[in-house]
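Researcher: Structure for this, please.
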Amino acid sequence: MSRRARWLTAAFLTITAAAIGWELLAAADGNPDTWTWTQLIVRYIPAPITMAVIAVLVAWVPSHFAYYYRRRAQRAQAALRTAADRAEAPGRHPAMSLINRNTLTLAKGSHSDGPPPGDPDCQLCFWEAYNVLTLPSRPNPDDIKITGECPPDVSQVLHQFALRLNDLLPDDKRQQLTLYLPNGTSPLAGTHTDGLDKRRGYMALDWLIRTYTPAWLDLAGLSAEAQQLRGLRRIVDLIAAQQAGPVVRAAGAAARAAAGDAAGDAAWDAAGDAARAAAGAAAAWDAAAGDAAWDAARDAARDAARAALQPTIDQLQDSAIALFSAMIAPQAEQS
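Model: Predicted structure, token format:
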């Protein structure tokens, strides 16, 4: 049971006990000035309303208890399957029987107050699932703290990138992130101390300027400006970022002029917000006019027809997933 559920249960039982206690004490009191709950209800609430509430409770209480008894039975069955899994695969990671990496459906948002792993109603985002799968031992599922915090051996840049990516991707594409969950080991493990976060930041900044922004400029009919951004030298250091700055600012000015007073939200940040979060780790963001690239993409997207956005969004979402994969081992990507 989660902490929130414990507090709600305690509050409900306290209020119920107080109401019943008052009713019993008032009924036993011989003082005619002492009123029971029943007398107060009859005095101040019309009979049709009281009868309607009682009818709802009579219908709701049995189904409510039946639901939770069914959940308890499902948990018991899950515990039996867990025991069978341990017997069949004694060398398997302890948390693998709490969630199945191969059948897990990643969800959007935080679930820290939700049911624990092993519960049929449990939902997990990418990092919540990652942290469960890297538990050092097998605790009681009810005692597991669901958290999306950065694991101690994972790069902060990769954590922030995947955190945004998990929430920005649609349900179907989000499931591609399960490839990076631990399965005995994980490609993300050890990235906290590999010294490559600065390079990862440059990779994200390069993607924002030479991939993300030109895609929206093309859609807005600014092909020349898009090609200029694509033709920039790959941004791998501060010098390249400084050289890109004037070109990015010029593209941003063109995008703003083309956008004019265009109305509506083009959902331009469907994939790029994750890259900005990662690129923020590099000091080159300001030098390369990262904000200008961001604004250029937004203005160009707003000028495009809404119906034409989805193919570009799909393309950029796939590109952002590929970027995340490349950022895990940037030395291989940039060698």
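Researcher: Any notable elements?
Model: Residues 94-194 form one domain. The longest helix spans residues 47-88.
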